[in-house]
Amino acid sequence: xxxxxxxxxxxxxxxxxxxxxxxxxxxxxxxxxxxxxxxxxxxxxxxxxxxxxxxxxxxxxxxxxxxxxxxxxxxxxxxxxxxxxxxxxxxxxx
Amino acid sequence: xxxxxxxxxxxxxxxxxxxxxxxxxxxxxxxxxxxxxxxxxxxxxxxxxxxxxxxxxxxxxxxxxxxxxxxxxxxxxxxxxxxxxxxxxxxxxxxxxxxxxxxxxxxxxxxxxxxxxxxxxxxxxxxxxxxxxxxxxxxxxxxxxxxxxxxxxxxxxxxxxxxxxxxxxxxxxxxxxxxxxxxxxxxxxxxxxxxxxxxxxxxxxxxxxxxxxxxxxxxxxxxxxxxxxxxxxxxxxxxx
Lengths: 94, 240
Known about the structure:
Chain A is an all-alpha fold.
């Protein structure tokens, strides 16, 4: 007897590679060619970087297909990381 | 009692798993290590942010000191290596141990584990090589971890345009740049050495199969993490 399992089909890795390539070109173009304000540029560049990192984590590291308890191992340090950076910045500010 | 065949899950390798996390021990160990490495790089990035925004003067403008097109190309190389790594994983999961094989009806040959892992190793070694060339050129032009070397080309440019080259914060800029990219480069080097070891001791003797390819999956996780970190570092250090 087998227990019902969720099946996953392998993602199209070349399509993910194409997205990453296009976004890298967009980043460099945005940083040097487009006449955008400094703050807007900063936010857009960070969004692109996080988007690319998410694509790598979800599809190449297969986090999208892992169980939640394994995902938690990777997710838990992220708020801790934000707390660490914020605390250090606060110490500098005050 | 109902009997049935378990559907094939391409994303779940067929090994016995540990109770709790639901994955085998080696993979769990790698994930725990990666979680600790997240904190390591966070400490570096956090320090960089504090140093940059608390610096006595303006930071050097993007592209003024660093060679962004060259590093952009290097970023592309690392992304390509990540794709070839995942192709190596997919190849061995399908039982393709070979290097290249002709597929009937197709013009292109089909790559197996031996081919894709070799591509990954070459791309990874290429990344480290380009980074070394970048370091040598930067130091040659006068950009060192201590800032701009006196009498160097960059020191002259910085004296002529101190805002663009971030003259007053050059020491902080140099030390944080070499520390962050250096530690990342060290991670890439460790990855390349580990893959070379696997290639000669496990992949070439065909010790991996569709039933057991744990080593490939675990080194793959490490390699993709290194790529992920570089994506963040490239934006923060080179583009902002």
